[in-house]
């Protein structure tokens, strides 16, 4: 715990300075972050890193943060989270679903520390969960795709058929069908969160099958780069990817953890932190659309802006009936909306999604 | 050039043991330079990398935990290499071991029977062995090279695991996330040190070291295996059963990797996930050769490798070194270790400067 301070203490001048100021008040609140991949310059982990930097910028000397990147989901995660807690971090953000059981175990062993787990569902007195309603901005990209696609076929490169991914695909179809009732989505799963080669191959296949709008639920920029080369529209995920496809990138479903992280760390310092679950949508600012491509027509931008407000205000509910699944069976009758637990465990595709779970 | 590399008439026994020491010194020096260039205190960084993970009981148990799957995979790989077989698919055999053992744990766990854990472990070893038996069959029947078949089957195994945890074995209460139920306590490996994660699988891995040594160095079967590996023609002339040794070496190799897999599933992870190993089967190849294919050398190599992983994490946690910097140090250490081996068969000689 005092390890990293040792070289400082070796300097007598600093030692004197440390003795002069009130020691306790000057001790920064320490926060650790665990990342599932290298930080890079776009993607899921990069957005969390932006959040960490925002915490440092907002709270200044009151906090000291640490992070460990590329921590595999599995046996290693528990050790890394425990190390961060042992090292004196009073709060740890574990930013991937696969850290759920490890973070739960460590939270039990460190009852005084506070833990926050992204996208999980296990909670405790000192373990909160948080996630974004990525499907809300996905719906908006569906509107854009529905308007821009001439063939009405949207190509979707997805990692794994987990609820979070399925929500995005279904929401995009609903958005697209709100403006083009004949729109369909073709899905290719890559079985990997990060595999630029496979993502690229999947994107090429989808274009060959008639898709003229591409998007992805994976962590690389391969799909938008493929779209740029093929000259078809696309939207990115996690981060703004405009620079990778300046001509064809319409916008991206972007995650912003900044405000949430600053708020939670501030509460932890003030003593007002409590456990719980936050699932923030467009209204919370946790998810939003990134800057739009300058080439997008003004009426479309106005339409997207109007629907954004409609979702924020609750007038537009993305998963509202009638909804039919791929077999044509009614999953949700008219006038009803899916509940949060139903959305969180979504394991079926809407009619109009072409792909197998 | 005043310096020249000259072949030694025979390998130097002293350098055999000095080369790892030389490598460690060079890596420490090289690493220190990198740390200093990045603006970190080099001595503190080296201490954090090599000493801090060993300074506490907790650190030692984590070291043992991390070394366990590496050790099991590497011993299996070494046995195969000694028999002239390149089993580079330990990752797949590990995964199959986790699947087979996990299947037993999920089916019978919670029943409270004494045999659940032994059956889980046996199934794990059998699963790994069965997965390695396919390359053995392909090799003995169709002369398919095991480098290809073992590697390809690794990818197949990971896909099968993915299918199981997305489909039939998915946790019904897990919001459709790809993972199995948590194993019941009676299917979990007991913990050796209270409050740690070091489990009984580590003892099995430790036990494998002298057993593998006995097998290779002290039994007729081991002698036949090594002869087939070193001098296949002589072995054929002596009438040693070549096919039998392919089967034996690959299956044993696979069984050890399978044990590593079930040890992870029924140990620190406690369930099946889409990925059970961050590449232990592949890292095991490095460990096997670092340990000079000898069981006791492999034990040391596995501990070193585990220490490098742990130290790398520690550098990130307490000194905020970037991942790439710790990776550089890890790579440097392995590079110097292999490079120092040159001096086992060669020596440096000063050339007298010739005057024209």
* Strand order, sheet with most strands of chain B: 1-2
What is the domain total for the residues of chain A?
Answer: 2
Radius of gyration of chain B: 22 Å
Strand sequence of the main sheet of chain A, in spatial order?
12-10-9-8-6-7-15
User: Quick one: how many beta strands of chain B?
Assistant: 2
Please trace the helix and strand order of chain A, writing H or E for each element: HHHEHEHEHEEHEHEHEHEEHEEHEEHE
- Under CATH at level 1, the class of the largest domain in chain A stands as Alpha Beta
CATH superfamily of the largest domain in chain A: Response regulator
Largest interface: A-B, 37 and 41 residues
Distance between the termini of chain A: 48 Å
- Shape field of chain A: globular
Q: How much is the radius of gyration of chain A in Å?
A: 22 Å
Largest sheet of chain B: 2 strands, antiparallel
User: What structural category arises from helix and sheet content of chain A?
Assistant: alpha/beta
Please, what is the average pLDDT of chain A? 91
Task: Spell out the helices and strands of chain B N to C.
Answer: EHHHHHHHHHHHHHHE
| Percentage of residues in helical conformation of chain A | 25-40%
Overview of the structural elements:
The complex is a heterodimer of chains A (357) and B (356). Chain A is an alpha/beta fold and 357 residues long. Chain A has 2 domains: 28-132 and 257-284, Rossmann fold; 136-253 and 319-354, Rossmann fold, CATH 3.40.50. Helix content of chain A is 40%, strand content 20%. Chain A has helices spanning 6-9, 12-20, 23-26, 44-59, 75-86, 100-109, 135-148, 163-179, 196-208, 222-230, 258-270, 298-313, 340-344; strands at residues 29-34, 63-68, 91-94, 114-118, 127-132, 153-158, 184-189, 213-217, 233-238, 249-255, 277-280, 287-289, 323-324, 330-332, 353-354. In chain A, the strands form 3 sheets. Chain A has a 7-stranded mixed β-sheet, with helices on both faces. Chain A has a 6-stranded parallel β-sheet with strand order 2-1-3-4-5-11, with helices on both faces. In chain A, helix 5 (75-86) packs parallel to helix 6 (100-109), helix 7 (135-148) packs parallel to helix 8 and helix 7 (135-148) runs antiparallel to helix 12 (298-313). The longest helix of chain A is centred in the middle third of the chain and has 17 residues, at 163-179. The termini of chain A are far apart. The model of chain A is unreliable at 1-23 (pLDDT under 50). Chain B has 356 residues and is mainly alpha-helical. Chain B has a domain at 73-290. Chain B is built from 14 helices and 2 strands; from the N terminus they run βααααααααααααααβ. Chain B has helices at 13-37, 42-50, 57-82, 90-108, 116-142, 146-166, 201-218, 220-230, 232-237, 242-269, 280-290, 295-319, 323-340, 342-345, and strands spanning 3-7, 346-350. Chain B has a two-stranded antiparallel ribbon with strand order 1-2. In chain B, helix 5 packs antiparallel against helix 10, helix 7 (201-218) crosses helix 8 (220-230) and helix 7 packs antiparallel against helix 12. The longest helix of chain B is centred in the C-terminal third of the chain and has 28 residues, at 242-269. The chains are: A alpha/beta (357), B mainly alpha (356). Chains A and B meet through strand 2 and helix 5 of A and helix 3, helix 6, helix 10 and helix 12 of B. Chain A: InterPro entries: ABC-Purine-Binding, PnrA-like. Chain A: It holds the Pfam family Bmp. Chain A: Keywords: Signal. Chain A: Residues 30-293 form the ABC transporter substrate-binding protein PnrA-like domain. Chain A: This is BMP family ABC transporter substrate-binding protein.
